[in-house]
Design goal:
This protein is α/β, with parallel strands linked by helices. It has a domain of 146 residues: Rossmann fold. It is built from seven helices and ten strands. The strands form three sheets. The protein has a six-stranded mixed sheet, with helices on both faces. Strands 1-4 form a two-stranded antiparallel sheet. The chain has a two-stranded antiparallel sheet with strand order 2-3. Strand 5, helix 3 and strand 6 form a beta-alpha-beta unit. Helix 1 packs antiparallel against helix 2, helix 1 packs across helix 6 and helix 2 packs across helix 3. This is Orotate phosphoribosyltransferase.
Amino acid sequence: MIFNKDTAEKTAEFLLQINAIKLNPRNPFTWASGWKSPIYCDNRLILSFPAVRNYVRDEFSKNIEKQFGKPDVIAGVATGAIGIGMLVAESLGLPFVYVRPEPKKHGRLNQVEGFLQKGQNVIVVEDLISTGNSSLLAVEALREAGANVKGMAAIFTYGFDVADENFKNAHLDLYTLSNYQNLLNLAVAKRYITEEEEQTLREWNVSPSTWNIEV
């Protein structure tokens, strides 16, 4: 769920302005998974725009503390959320760690990088939620390291049913700055897309793994 509606609308507007989110229903993108998609999201672009990254940092910091209480540690999911996670940790005056997709193959074989003590309360920062699988692998790694993961905060979610189910099964609360619904509402209101294109985007969101479009 979103932290609040005002933040969701403002975040969506920023993401569209800096082209972190691209909407192209007539010429779909192909994701790494092979899915065809009328939307592409690259929130790493946020770090290149100081006003936007500061807004995201401040909204995360304020809403994380309000929703979860102040944690002991902020954890970023590699690689997309390392930068913004560090900014949030700095803003809150907290230690920071990051979680690799899998353990290193050499050295100390770490998956969680940084200093983390067993029993510490951790909030995970993520840049984007699709199915939630990779994000929840990071949560699993933190739990195996002895952390008490209190929740996850992400910049944006596509709002897939499968993600909701995955987080429910993992017994983890997910809050986001913005989501697909607020993005589409804003994109229509600001005329980034037509109402016909909005319908295409909504149809894709219902069944993204099977959706295709005639071009």
